[in-house]
């Protein structure tokens, strides 16, 4: 049994426009040193998938910088490895009339050459809007043993806890884990199975779906394929029980980051035996703690300089906290600089932000204060 992977890097960019205005959803930083694509990539690599295509749309320069040759995921290979798949635009298109894909199915139509050139029997597809550590190898085994046409990985969640909306998909199944219906989350109450947008299916079956979709003008994989054919095709679910975060708004990004400060969540997500989460390795200097600063319940990446107080916060590489400054319940992305006597609470700073001396900024966990990339306050 051989398997290839497909990762959609831009499908959910509109969910968090603050963080994706200059990058893809896949390259959104998370957890002090990771990008969201690290979780999808690592899930596949941990299942011995060594040929992976990353479907792009626009704003993918930071994604290219992060992935590089793929060596940090052991994907720098002569055969297979990682392939960046840019959007397909013909020579006859122009700026006024060209329109890139708007759905997963349209994205698949644009990468049919990659799929047709794969010799692998199965394809695993994944989005980049979830943070999880899924045993993809077990998903594939379950898919094969059940003789399913498509297996969708789901997580049983409380809609109110995850702030779900119409862009999220609810999967309804019977006692035998067979999918019977697909719905959007609209005023849903009680726990239900949320699609994690991870799919396993045979390559030939995927090619048939793409060809039929092109012929009939289908746009949605869930509505036009899974929902329309659930009654007579064998579509199954696989329930994931581990830690999970859905990034579908700035608020959810903030809350998911704060949950990562819990030791149990961190260990279950990042320290699973034989399933590590890989990321790009940087040779940064160790963090310097100057004049006995106070640091409590925080994640501090390499290369930081801490001269003040940091509590319940996540600091990425190269962050400086000045003397007398207090950082609480905040996420500071790479190379953020805070001057002296600064107070931050429930703040998210993008990269290369400078906050001058004496500034006091506060948001709320339901509405964090966001500072855009390169801003000075």
What does this structure look like?
The chain is an alpha/beta fold and 377 residues long. It has 2 domains: 3-270, Spore Coat Polysaccharide Biosynthesis Protein SpsA, Chain A; 288-371, UDP N-Acetylglucosamine Acyltransferase, domain 1. It is 24% helix and 27% strand. It has 11 helices and 28 strands. It has helices at residues 17-20, 36-45, 61-67, 104-110, 112-117, 136-146, 159-162, 203-216, 221-229, 250-259, 263-270; strands at residues 3-8, 29-30, 34-35, 51-55, 81-85, 122-126, 130-132, 150-157, 169-173, 179-184, 192-202, 235-239, 244-246, 288-289, 294-296, 299-300, 305-306, 309-311, 314-315, 320-321, 326-328, 331-332, 337-338, 343-345, 347-349, 354-355, 360-362, 369-371. The strands form 6 sheets. Strands 1, 4, 5, 6, 8, 9, 10, 11 and 12 form a 9-stranded mixed β-sheet that branches. Strand 9 and strand 10 (179-184) form a beta hairpin. Mean pLDDT is 91; it is low at 89-98.
């Amino acid at each position: 049994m051989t398997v290839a992977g497909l990762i959609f890097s831009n499908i959910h960019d509109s969910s968090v426009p603050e963080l994706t205005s200059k990058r893809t959803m896949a390259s959104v930083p998370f957890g002090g040193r990771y990008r969201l694509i690290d979780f999808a990539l690592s899930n596949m690599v941990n299942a011995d998938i060594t040929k992976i295509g990353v479907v792009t749309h626009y704003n993918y320069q930071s994604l290219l910088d992060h992935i590089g040759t793929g060596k940090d995921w052991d994907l720098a290979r002569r055969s297979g490895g990682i392939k960046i798949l840019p959007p397909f635009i013909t020579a006859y298109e122009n700026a006024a009339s060209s329109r890139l894909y708007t759905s997963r199915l349209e994205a698949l139509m644009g990468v049919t050459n990659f799929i047709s050139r794969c010799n692998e029997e199965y394809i695993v597809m994944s989005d980049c809007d979830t943070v999880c550590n899924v045993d993809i190898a077990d998903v594939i085994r379950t898919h094969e043993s059940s003789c399913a046409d498509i297996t969708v990985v789901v997580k049983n969640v409380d809609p109110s806890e995850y702030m779900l909306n119409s862009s999220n998909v609810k999967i309804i199944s019977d006692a035998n884990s067979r999918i019977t219906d697909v719905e959007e989350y609209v005023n849903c109450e009680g726990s239900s199975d949320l699609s994690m947008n991870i799919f396993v299916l045979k390559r030939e079956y995927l090619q048939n779906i793409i060809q039929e979709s092109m012929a009939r003008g289908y746009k949605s994989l869930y509505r036009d394929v899974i929902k329309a054919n659930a009654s007579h095709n064998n579509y199954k679910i696989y329930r994931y029980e581990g830690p999970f975060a859905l990034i579908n708004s700035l608020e959810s990004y903030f809350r998911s980051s704060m949950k990562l400060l819990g030791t149990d969540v961190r260990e279950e997500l990042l320290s699973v035996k034989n399933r590590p989460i890989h990321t790009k390795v940087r040779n940064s200097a160790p963090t310097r703690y100057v004049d006995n600063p106070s640091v409590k319940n925080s994640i501090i990446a390499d290369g930081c300089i801490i001269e003040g107080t940091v509590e319940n916060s996540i600091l990425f590489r190269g962050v400086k906290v000045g003397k007398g400054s207090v950082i609480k319940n905040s996420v500071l992305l790479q190379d953020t600089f805070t001057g002296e006597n600064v107070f931050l609470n429930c703040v998210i700073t993008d990269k290369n932000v400078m906050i001058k001396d004496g500034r006091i900024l506060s948001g709320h966990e339901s509405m964090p204060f966001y500072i855009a990339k390169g801003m000075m306050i």
